[in-house]
């Protein structure tokens, strides 16, 4: 329980590209909403510098040691987009900072809500966030020049805790159905184990309907306007979660509009799931980047640390400003408002509440 | 070139559940359309018995040896749905017959067309069909009771030949764009190799635009009505192909309506991609099962072996009968036509052409 801490430390990690600019706006809004506890010394909001691709490349690490040490002093984190090098990029082949952070901080549950009221969609995805195809993602083996291996890992405790998180959430939020998604008909050993653990946990919640689908057919089901409404809580291994949540977010207006929370026992991290838009930076338009997604992640953070009222106000303000001003502020059209102006507008809106 | 063979042998594999019944209807139609070459002894159409879950379970093999020997005597195959056991089923944990067949016959290219004219969709997917997450799919390792491993394998020749198949197809069919889909930002070793081979082949086709996306965002892009039209040919590793083609088929009316072709150097296999509907069999309604999807697969087979005119007639008849009679024959409503009546209707329609 965060409220019982002497001082709760929120770290704000800028990241790359438009990241520092948009997280700064989210930070201003958090400072505004948390003014009292900050003044009373109950909460501290820290900016954490240095999680940039340049620094990471220089030390050839997904997260530089000193940055990781700073991060570990915090309790909850708000994170901007970070660059993931791939073959052909000028940087060494280091792991995604997101993926590394999830493992280093043991943020095992990636929780992504998707809601489209007009369409009756109200899904919450529980993506396992530390193992699966991501566990050894950047440590595959080149056996010969022509033969490459990668590994997928599932542990029973790892599968059990995400299944339990999904069922607990369903139980506490009046949900009546939990769906497990795997490819256990082909990837039998790991996905089989994942499914087995889900079934065991399901047996402890006899009042919640449990069903199972394969990931291939599940991507089709989300497209089916008649039947997709029936899904409520979905629990799935890392890679399938990555895939299905992006598809799901599209019905809500695209990945750029969604926030994602990464929850562990000790730490929690909230992030926007769009990229760092290096082109906007190159073209000198970073100040026009839309901060609304990372502000939404900040609202998730506020709810998570127990500031439900502040979170609700922020969600409400995002709804109002998002609707009224969407055309102006979206994706940085330079005839629109800057990110700073948008944040000002959000705060002004909250003041009227 | 099949036309140069002394005798081309087409094998028809019934499979499980409704399989034998629906493939029988497709076989009748093929016999009807290939009457002349069959009478002349240029083509033989054989029924291959025994690829049933009972037989496979009895010998604990994905494909019983004697059945595989019979299959290997054919050149092209039409296959009905086969049961894939999963944890908790009464059968041993044997591999999917589809997956085993793809590997045994080295059917490296899974080609799936998806076309929705009203929406401007005209996609052809080239799914690598023998390696990736499927290569050792049922041979993962349980290191301890709580720790499971699976493997993903990509070889350079394996990736290269599917990339080449995709670009060749694009080139020969006036397509201007080929898209490679991986998750090379995380699954760096294998997906990185796959992408590298795609890039190498792309360099040989400078007149074709080549682009790259990650599988997560790609599932979102297919939902985007404005931008999805732009995709033409998509090449991707096994598991991503499995996932994306099911999503794609949904826009065309669902997985049940789609056919899939599995192409190798020596063999080719055509199949419907729906299940074996054991419940229909249990309820005694197998004769009402809709054979249109496996008949579509038969049309793909006819085109593949060089009987383009016969294939076109069959496609046209499917369009006519599918539209006029769809409500009656779909998914075996027992107030509708039987599969046999539907096949009769298809042949009568072709006779009027
Ligand atoms: C950026 C990438 C490594 C990451 C992932 O694959 O998890 C992203 O797609 C996400 O879903 O947060
Ligand atoms: C039945 C299953 C093993 C198969 C696969 O995963 O390849 C199916 O989904 C397909 O796409 O043909």
UniProtKB/TrEMBL annotation, chains A, B:
Keyword Oxidoreductase: yes
Cited SUPFAM superfamilies: Isocitrate/Isopropylmalate dehydrogenase-like (SSF53659)
One GO process term, biological-process aspect: tricarboxylic acid cycle
Domain Isopropylmalate dehydrogenase-like: 9-346
Any one GO molecular function term: isocitrate dehydrogenase (NAD+) activity
Keywords: Oxidoreductase
One Pfam family named in its UniProt record: Iso_dh
Origin superkingdom: Bacteria
Classification via SMART domains: Iso_dh
Family assignment from sequence similarity: Belongs to the isocitrate and isopropylmalate dehydrogenases family.
Protein name as it appears in the record: Isocitrate/isopropylmalate dehydrogenase family protein
Taxonomic path: Bacteria, Bacillati, Bacillota, Clostridia, Eubacteriales
């Amino acid at each position: 329980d965060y409220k019982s801490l002497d001082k709760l430390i929120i770290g704000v990690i800028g990241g790359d590209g438009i990241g520092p600019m948009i997280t700064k706006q989210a930070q201003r809004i958090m400072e505004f909403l948390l003014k009292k506890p900050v003044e009373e010394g109950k909460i501290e909001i820290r900016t954490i510098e240095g999680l940039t691709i340049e620094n990471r490349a220089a030390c050839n690490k997904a997260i530089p040691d000193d940055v990781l040490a700073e991060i570990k002093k915090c309790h909850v984190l708000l994170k901007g987009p970070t660059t993931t090098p791939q073959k052909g990029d000028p940087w060494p082949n280091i792991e995604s900072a997101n993926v590394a952070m999830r493992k280093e901080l043991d943020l095992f549950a990636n929780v992504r809500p998707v809601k489209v009221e007009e369409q009756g969609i109200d899904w919450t995805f529980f993506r396992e966030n530390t193992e699966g195809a991501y566990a050894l993602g950047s440590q595959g083996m080149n056996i010969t020049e022509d033969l490459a291996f990668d590994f997928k890992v599932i542990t029973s405790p790892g599968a059990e805790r995400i299944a339990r998180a999904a069922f607990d959430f369903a139980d506490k939020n009046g949900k009546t159905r939990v769906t497990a998604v795997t490819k256990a008909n082909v990837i039998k050993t790991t996905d089989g184990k994942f499914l087995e653990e889900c079934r065991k946990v399901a047996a402890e919640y006899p009042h919640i309907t449990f069903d199972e689908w394969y990931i291939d057919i599940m991507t089709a089901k989300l497209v089916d306007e008649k039947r997709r409404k029936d899904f409520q809580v979905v629990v799935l291994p890392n890679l399938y979660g990555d895939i299905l949540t992006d598809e799901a977010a599209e019905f809500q207006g695209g990945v750029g509009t969604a926030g994602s929370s990464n929850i562990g026992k000790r730490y929690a991290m909230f992030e926007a799931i769009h990229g760092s838009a290096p082109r906007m930076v190159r073209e000198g338009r970073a100040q026009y980047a839309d901060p609304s997604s990372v502000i939404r992640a900040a609202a998730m953070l506020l709810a998570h640390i127990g500031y439900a009222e502040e979170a609700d106000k922020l969600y409400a303000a995002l709804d109002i400003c998002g609707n009224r001003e969407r055309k102006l502020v979206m994706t940085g059209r330079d005839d629109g408002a800057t990110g700073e102006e948008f944040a000002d507008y959000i705060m002004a809106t909250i003041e009227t509440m």
